Amino acid sequence: MNYRKLKSGTDIRGVACDGVKNQRVELTDEVIKELTYGFILWCKEHLGKNPENLKVAIGRDSRISGERIARAIIEKLLEYGVDVYYTNLSSTPSMFYACLDIPADAAIEVTASHHPFNRNGLKFFTKAGGFESSDIDALIAFAEENENLSLRKEGKLTELDYMSAYSKRLRDMIKEGVNAENYEKPLEGFKITVDAGNGAGGFYAYNVLEKLGADVSSSQFLEPDGMFPNHIPNPENEEAMESIQKAVIKNKSDLGIIFDTDVDRCGAVDENGAEINKNSLIALASYIALQGNGGGTVVTDSITSDGLSDFINNRLKGVHHRFKRGYKNVINEAKRLNTSGINAPLAIETSGHAAMRENYFLDDGAYLVTKIIILMAKLRKENKKLGDILKDLKSPAESYELRFDILSENFKEPGENVINKLKAYAEKNNINIVPNNYEGIRLSFDKENGDGWLLLRLSVHDPVMPLNIESNITGGSRIIAGKLYKFFEKEAFFSIDISPLKEFLK
Description:
- The protein has helices spanning 29-46, 66-79, 92-101, 133-145, 162-178, 203-209, 238-251, 279-289, 306-315, 327-339, 365-381, 386-390, 412-428, 476-491, 499-505, and strands at 7-8, 11-15, 55-60, 83-89, 106-110, 119-126, 129-130, 157-159, 192-195, 255-259, 266-269, 275-276, 297-300, 319-322, 346-348, 354-356, 362-363, 398-406, 432-433, 441-445, 452-456, 464-471, 496-497.
- It is built from 15 helices and 23 strands.
- The protein is α+β, with helices and mostly antiparallel strands.
């Protein structure tokens, strides 16, 4: 099998069980064991650990294929003498902490994030953090080479409840951060609704918040169910967000929290049912991260709004640094800035991946939610609410994303050609090209020409050109889209399918 098609950025992902027509199972036990063998060789090469001296933690989310895949990994590790700690149902961020606390030399989480029930995957960690794309390449190469390792002894399997230790870490954060008179119950008097989407995040309601005195009786979908019967466990999903908003309003909660399946992303809802997600989540996270980091830089992905830039640069007196899409790109850019002497305490993507420097630049939805809860409790002492922090954040009147398929086997060349020609077209027609843009081309338009911006970029992995448009006025997006259509009419790129743009302009 060609394992390279299972690579998804810094993860492994593929079809893991039957149930969807015309989708054949890719992550069989045999494939999982071969990839695990590649992981053992990666650890030998990069950690300098022979298998018999290696300790690995394994966790999984609630997917129906998770237990099978985890057991296949464990079987292969034990066969080569690796000592295994199986933490059963676990969040992805907890697997990084397992490397620090158990301590394990490395860890694997069995998850495919918010993807459909029939898919699954693997995320890898060491004490240095999550795998990079190059690490996945090396692991796959090891799996394909099939180097012959000698079997020396059977490894030892230990099953443990590591999530309790991870939950205690979060409870201690809240106790110390709020520093309430009733130190052990700092969340008494707060009603908090948690929506785990039947993923791995239910622990946060009953093992963190409830133990600190919060009323979590309005929480929903806490039971793990890998078929995800209620809604897609994804804070970006409209149905999922509407579900938690309705629950907050119905129950008159002080805060709503929603996690993705493996809890490395989150979203929130304030006491009025207003969504704290995407730009508003970034704004709130920036407010938190810049406390004690005055003038610090917040690194985001490329599709964030102009209103967010204004909020970070002017309201918070920080620096907004837009970078490329992809949470790992954003995190690595923040690390690079810090290494070069620039104070960058936060890396956060619009999807909800948020990584704070104080937390090892680990994208951890539960950690960010914990920081938000601490802020909420502190604000109550001042008779303020989370909405007061965000009142100056300007939101666009319209926001759209269109996706153009590239009808060419070598998709990068025609995609880059479009971007280069659009840049030349903008220069010739006095259209403002936004400076310091690291991905694709971003154009801004004044009030007479749509009052907003567009970003056209090339997907890293897929033959697609995503187009994002935002406008501050109703109908402005159509004006901006129309100007882009004139460019496409003039140039006539036969390898780019702009039918979504035509449909948008009907």
